[in-house]
Amino acid sequence: MSQEAPAQAVLGPSGPAPVGRSTRSGRPARKNARRRLVRTTRPWVLLSPALVLLAVLLLVPLVRVAQLSFQDYGLRELASGTTNYVGFANYLEILGSEFLWRTVLPNTVGFAFVCVVLTVTLGTVVALFLNTLGNTWRVLCSTAIMVAWAVPAVTGTYVLIWIFDPLNGLVANVLADVGIIEAGTVNWFTDRLGFYAIATLNVVHHGFPFIAITVLAGLMTVPTELYEAAKIDGAGAWRRFWKITVPMLKPVFAVVTILSTIWDFKVFTQIYLMPGGNGGNPAVFNLGVWSYIESFAQGKYGMGSAIAVLLTLILLSITVVYMRTLFKEEDL
Length: 332
Hints:
Blueprint: H1 4-11, H2 21-68, H3 75-80, H4 89-95, H5 98-131, H6 135-150, H7 153-163, H8 170-177, H9 192-219, H10 224-232, H11 237-248, H12 250-265, H13 269-272, H14 287-297, H15 301-331
Helix pairs in contact: 2-15, 5-9, 5-12, 6-9, 7-9, 9-12, 12-15, 14-15
Protein name: ABC transporter permease subunit
Membrane topology: Multi-pass membrane protein
Family: Belongs to the binding-protein-dependent transport system permease family.
């Protein structure tokens, strides 16, 4: 009995006692914790160089612009290195200005709205056309339209300035030859609507290839069986587009629309380089040009920074809508 009792105590009722189990079970737990830590920190370690670069190039200047927007900062403060904080005075002056509500904001919002509608519409039409072509012609035509995307905005703007030149431009000469106008009597750049009509043509021409290629990529993922079944049921091309193409490509249209809105809200080059856009004609200013003129032409860096902050807030709001749209589409 005395020998069986210790043996039973060692073996226990269900077998040998787990000698050293706590030590052995602690090692896998620590290994799993280290693995989780590595999996969590590894992406951030790999992204750290890019994040540091973005912080230096984007975050620091953004913080500096935000600081300047609360100051009455001009050439005197720039030369002396002093600061003159005025709180929200710059923002109150901007928001209380009739020039903002009657000229700058309508130019910015109206121009962006028209450009987005025309760009998305033209890009979709071109994508539908490319989708009907064979592989060889599709590649050739896609390459051709991408030339407009590859041309810098500066080059495209100067080409349109030459085309619509009031004296020797192509449009003025053609209209003069057919007797509609007299050469040199009409200057489209001085008129607000004419100015933005040319700018719209420039932006749409430069932006529609991105829409076309993106929508084309979406069209190529739509099963052809859906269109064949719709044809059998008697649906025409217009009905097939609205009942099949649009619902299937709704995420694509949402993305290209929001991206185009962001790009067209902050158009600067196409406006500034046109005659009158660099300060000679205040009636054609948008938020980007107005901020630049106030800062570097007038020497009111605080006021220009406040305008830039307002534009940034608008773009951030659009970006939030864009991100929420993407997340909703992923949830679907």
